[in-house]
Amino acid sequence: MAVNKFIKYSLFIFNFLFWLCGCGILAISIYLKVTNNGNKILNVTIPGVDLLIAIGAVIMVLGFLGCCGAVRESRCMLLLFFIGLLLIFILLLAAGILGAVAQAQVDSWINGQLKNLVPLSNQPSDVQNDLGTLQQEGQCCGLTGGPQDWGNQVPSSCKCTNTSAPCTTMSGNSVYSTPCVTYVSNIMKKNMKIVAGIGFAIGVVMLIGMSFAMTLYCQIGRKGGVTTS
User: Fold this and answer.
1) Which structural domain, as residue segments, surrounds residue 155?
2) Are residues 21 and 69 in the same domain?
3) Which of 63, 148, 158, 189 has its CA 20 to 30 A from that of 1?
4) Could you give the CA distance from residue 96 to residue 142 in angstroms, rounded to a whole number?
5) Furthest-apart CA pair in the chain: how many Å?
6) Residues with Cβ < 8 Å from 40, sequence gap 6 or more?
7) Coil, helix or strand at residue 173
8) Whether this model's pTM surpasses 0.85
9) The total number of structural domains that make up the chain
10) For helices 48-72 and 181-228, what crossing angle results, to 10°?
């Protein structure tokens, strides 16, 4: 029994597109990582980006493996490709379920992470500099308790330069009264939506790829059986 050429080349094209998806995921995740500008505050509260980088790299490897398996009609490569897709699909499914269940706890989790940095005046200079950048961008001050998180040493990055934003007077200076936990939470939720959308698209593509791979795997096996009989 001959191998169905349509299945064979469809799988090759699929895996090439799958490889491109891996490149895209890797590029997007690196972009999300770079847009944090190495900010230690955001790196603490947005761990999912590192996971996306790893997933993108693995998908690129699997896409290459699937392309070679389809062209060479290698059952070993196709089986490895199928198992790899299945494992990633299960992990994505588990992560999606956990993410949906824990959605309501996002704000409390972020608060817990940021409270570990208070009092801010005791943090190293690099952390204080990162927080200063965050305060200017988000027009906020402090992390969870507002300007009080700094004690009596409120930095100039808290200075209220936007009169339309909520401000308060502290030590004779007008500073932002909104804590930065709100700004950080919004960034994390935005990134989580991007991650969830990418994950859903990957899951659909993986189901199609597993179907093609197993079909071609079985056809190659039947072809070998006919040849040896």
Assistant:
1) 141-179
2) yes
3) 63
4) 32
5) 93
6) 126, 127, 130
7) strand
8) no
9) 2
10) 20
